[in-house]
Design a protein that fits this description.
- The complex is a heterotrimer of chains A (177), B (485) and C (347).
- In chain A, 73% of the residues lie in helices and 0% in strands.
- Chain A is built from 7 helices and no strands.
- Chain B is an all-alpha fold and 485 residues long.
- Helix content of chain B is 76%, strand content 1%.
- Chain B has helices at 8-13, 15-32, 40-62, 78-105, 110-128, 132-150, 157-188, 193-202, 208-225, 233-240, 243-268, 273-296, 301-322, 325-351, 368-371, 373-387, 393-407, 411-437, 450-468, 471-477, and strands spanning 68-69, 74-75.
- In chain B, strand 1 (68-69) and strand 2 form a beta hairpin.
- Chain B is globular, with a radius of gyration of 22 Å.
- The relative contact order of chain B is 0.10.
- The N and C termini of chain C lie far apart (46 Å).
- In chain C, strand 3 (192-193) and strand 4 form a beta hairpin.
- The mean pLDDT of chain C is 82.
- Chain C has helices at residues 3-40, 56-66, 77-93, 121-129, 132-142, 146-177, 182-187, 207-221, 233-236, 246-271, 283-311, 317-346; strands at residues 101-106, 109-113, 192-193, 197-198.
- In chain C, the strands form 2 sheets. A two-stranded antiparallel sheet of chain C has the order 1-2. In chain C, strands 3-4 form a two-stranded antiparallel sheet.
- The radius of gyration of chain C is 21 Å and the shape is globular.
- The longest helix of chain C is centred in the N-terminal third of the chain and has 38 residues, at 3-40.
- By secondary structure, chain C is mainly α.
- Chain C has 12 helices and 4 strands; from the N terminus they run H-H-H-E-E-H-H-H-H-E-E-H-H-H-H-H.
- Classes of the chains: A mainly alpha (177), B mainly alpha (485), C mainly alpha (347).
- Chains A and B meet through helix 5 and helix 7 of A and helix 2, helix 5, helix 6, helix 7 and helix 9 of B.
Chain lengths: 177, 485, 347
Amino acid sequence: MMTFDQILFYALAVIAVLSAIMVITRRNPVHSALFLITTLFCVAGIYLQLHAEFLAAVQVIVYVGGIMVLFLFVIMLVNLETLSQERRFNRQWHIAILVSVVLLVEFGTIIWRGKAALQLPANQPLMDTLTTNNSEQLGVVLYQQYMLPFEIASFLLLVAIIGAVILAKRRLSSDGK
Amino acid sequence: MFNQYFQPNDILIIYPELLLALFAMGVMIIDLFLDRAWKVLNAFTALVGIAYAAYALYRLKSNALNLSGYNHAILNDSFAIYFQFVFLIATALVILISARYLSIEGENRGDYYALILLSLIGMNFMVMGIDLITLYIALELMAVSEYILVGYLRTNRQSNEAAMKFFLLGAFSSGILLYGISLLYGISGSTDLRVIAQRLAERPSHDPIALVAVVTLTAGLLFKIGGVPFHQWLPDAYEGAPSTITTFISVAPKAASFALILRIFIVGLKPLETSWVPVLSVVCVLTMTLGNITAISQSNIKRLLAYSSIAHAGYLLLGLIAGNEYGITGIAIYFLVYAFMNIGIWTLVVAMRRKDLIGDQIQDMAGMIYKNPGAAVLMLVFLLSLAGIPPTAGFIGKYYLFASVIQTHHYVLAVIAVLNAAISLYYYFRVVVVMFMSEKTDEEKMTLSPGVLTSLAVTLVFTLLIGIYPEPFIRFAQNSLSLFQ
Amino acid sequence: MSDLTVFLINTTIKSIVVIGAMLGAVAYSTWLERKLVAHLQVRWGPHRVGWHGLLQPIADGLKFIFKEDIIPTEASKFIYILAPTIAFIPALLSISVIPFGSLGFFGSHAVRFQITDLNIGLLFIFAVTSLGVYGVALGGWASNNKYSLMGALRSSAQMISYELSLGLSVVSVLLVAGTLSLEKIVELQSGTWFGFIPKWNIFVLPLFISFFTYFVSAIAETNRVPFDLPEAESELVAGFHTEYSSMKFALFFLAEYANMLTVSALATTLFFGGWHGPAFGPLWLQGLLPLFWFLAKVFAFMFFYIWTRGTLPRFRYDQLMAFGWKFLMPLAIANVILTSFVVAWKG
């Protein structure tokens, strides 16, 4: 007998994986985007189950509300007719699927056999989700414990911005020639 | 303001990186005020930044600071400092040869140098990091800058294609790497490599999940150094990228990725040695052999060097497989040597880029001895060094690596490696033959700008010096042995 | 009764009441708008159906239901039908975390005038409202009509651009309050300075600027004049909902007004002390007065919305983008920095 939590988890997980498959198999990019949104929502739901409310909300705000809207925006802007007529996969997809399935089964078996290992060590203090606020904990982890990676990530974003400008801008004023 | 997560010393530990960041942004801002004719100043700015960073690093090395910082996210030990010096040297040399090349390509802008410096910051954190999250973010910082730099020639289709391939495969491999990292975190409950090592040691030796973690981590990391079978992106990226960038990514990021691999495998995954050594041995043999054999049939000098660089990654893996002091010293000294000889040879390739001639076919070098005897002789020295012939520096590196596997009784590996070195002689000398024995096909002179000349002089001197008098350099490289502490 | 049953009954009743009230308020906002704009333009507005046209919204509703429901043949059918729903549901959802009043007592039961208090309430609102853009974007795309598509594109660009300054402007409130729970934010605004200035956030120095950025970007987020480019009728027929008719159109319409109400309610909660106001009289009155103050403040915002519509012309598209990115966003960021300095200085 599964508990309510488990049923919810499996429902979310199954929907997430199925829609992820749909993302790559749909011909129409808008449909793909919608399925990706579904996947992201399900993941947010799973975060909620883990008592990571902040993460869930941010997942929805950033991915669903921000990034995917931009995706849709771009998809709508480019010519859909040509896009949906192109083949989704190249000719090697049979082999690729075979390899993926083999790999999946392999990893699945291994993880199944070693699932006892996935329990956290006993001396690891679990986060106290009831007494302190989840957002607060995340803040402490992000801005104190992992402060340095967080700051490096800001440089990563800077690089991404520079890259976007370099690659997207048609003609820069200081070009030679 | 200060607490257990943030100590006053922490800022000092990353002082070189802070300087680099400052200069990276400074280059972009100064670029705005520069006239087209003065764009070369950007290169100077970047060089000044590197010089400052090198000085800061030197001070850091001589000060006895507590070099673990940010709640143990980084560990700036002498291993890290050694590799950072290698990056700084390589980057400085690349910047020297970039200015003229960029103005020929018509893309002479400040953001190029900014990206190189930012990528350098990423590499520095990669060798300092001892925490998986820091390592991963730093790796991405380096990689994303590289993707952009590879596609820097926007009007060049080949450059775009190379960037696209590099980016897609790189992103894919990062995903695999991240999967491995998450599994490691799952079984150990920590992102600190030292804690992970402790936890792994407490577990049974053939833990299936740890095995998956190791395999995925290995796959992801091998992508970054271009180990077979994850090497397909490498020749295309090297060929399509601007030659200066190829010079850069064939040395510094490769060294950084290797340092990262050393840190993860020697520090974090040491308890699982029995499971990753066989995997890496197979990869090592494949990488050496495939790289060398494919290089034979190349007619494009960039592709030839790309395959040769794959083969070199194979040699370097020997040091990791041995995993002893000799092996680590070998990898360290090899990268120092590799920085000089590889940048030297790529500088010559860059210099062959002249008006209306890309200069990347081996045939373009025909009769170089008549046209430009100096360049031809330099090319010969660097090729000899790549092949590992004494008295060039390449010999010292190969000697250490081969000796390390013999020490750990991996005789088969040693034999295969030596055979491979022999194969590589064949294609290196094919280039020499074209240079010395064919008639010249055109009269175009090479563009030897002051930067290129400086770079050539430095690389030549060190390639020979390390080969003839290796003693101080080896002592320098032995700094990296702090990895074992 | 177990705790769970109490909770379920409690929440269900509250949801029904709040959604009912919300829909009623939405219906009558349309009446208010028509009436007010009419008076601003020296007209009468609706006055045939009922006293001063008070039954007009009901007549409109009936008309919507009986209209023919048209789906264009070339439309992407599923998404075409899905879009109005996506627009409508988030609009209703977001009201669920807003506190309407203090505790009320029904017999011995203490009832909170709020459907639920999440400790990430504010983020919840942002998460939910950020979904609203899908209704518009997908609706415009699925219609397979160039005006609709143009409206959808404009709208997604606009909503994303202004969502940034909207989010940033709220950050300074969070910095001052130190919590994401809307109820706690309201609680922190109780009391007065010198006995007569209420301790509302709007009177806290740097937060005045955030109110400005908040409200301007909120108007843009709800696609209202002067930022109503997604439906700019003089250029795009009716924008993203050109092809929609009957109830589907009604859903878009209702969503727009529901969003206006949410945004007003949030402005009240964050900057104007929520349900706080002078409480006096007998106990039952003291219980109900907070509700009254809350509604009064929301009404004031709605009035302001309609007032701007009656007064201002529409922005040009490039002006809209320039204003959002080059003025509002830097201002919001500067304000966040300023506020964090103030907060740090005050310790």
